[in-house]
Write a structure and sequence with these properties.
Blueprint lengths: L4 E2 L7 H28 L6 H12 L9 H30 L6 E2 H31 L3 E4 L19 E4 L7 H12 L8 H26 L9 H31 L10 H12 L8
Antiparallel strand pairs: 1-2, 3-4
Helix pairs in contact: 1-2, 1-3, 1-7, 3-4, 4-6, 6-7
Length: 290
Amino acid sequence: MCCFYLKPFQSNNTIPFFLSAGASSVVVGHPLDTVKTRLQAGKNYKNTLHCILSIYRKETAMGFFKGMSFPLASITVYNSVVFGFFSNIQRLINKYRHGDERRPCSMLDLTVASMLTGLVSVGLGAPVDLVKIRLQMQTQTVLAENLHLAGHVPSGTNIPLRSMDIPSRRLYRGPVHCISSILQTEGLQGLYRGAGAMVLRDVPGYALYFIPYAIFCELLTPDASSGPHPCSIWLAGGLAGSISWVTATPADVVKSRMQADAQVQRKYRGILHCIVHSYKTEGAQAGSRQ
């Protein structure tokens, strides 16, 4: 049985690169993440462009940055732990299986390390994602259908019923108030609502990210004795991210809907109920909303 060996993910350039890029990625990506979250968990958006225009018209440009402060404040710690864990777990696996922690990882070793890293990322990232999504979603308007103007319309008058937008009441004043409110009403487990769907997303997702990433870095680094160039890291990361996201999107839709499902208006009883309900109401295309 042959083994395919890859260079360990422990270059001196790699981890600092991810750490320094973390804050920039949050600032640049958050507006698109807000649009993605609204499309996945919101209503009445025809398409991406309609969602963008709706947010801008009703909430101005600041609406795209709702919920950004908590991910921005925690991204350095998150990246430090996740990528540090990934490097260290590779060394531990190599030392346990082969007696040499500097030995290049095999495909199996890299897969195990990636999946374990996915579990760690859920433990850290689930509360951050939940708070972010709650803050992103609370600025939406609620749709009031069949509004009866009792006392203002004469009896028997046939007036067509219409819909109107009513600004929703803000439940949370900010990330700290959001966390405090969730802990008071739902307990600690409330911060991990949707974590099961996040496991379904991140455990295979990390494997489908790190394995292509390592392969692309190997291909883009002609000199085996040196670490990958920052440009090679950037290109490899982009290609690997595109591959992993294709499989992660359906689970991400379920995660977003579970986390946006606040207790005051709970709609889904669990992951399976969310999947079944989404499929019955929207069909298979519900898993590709982004």
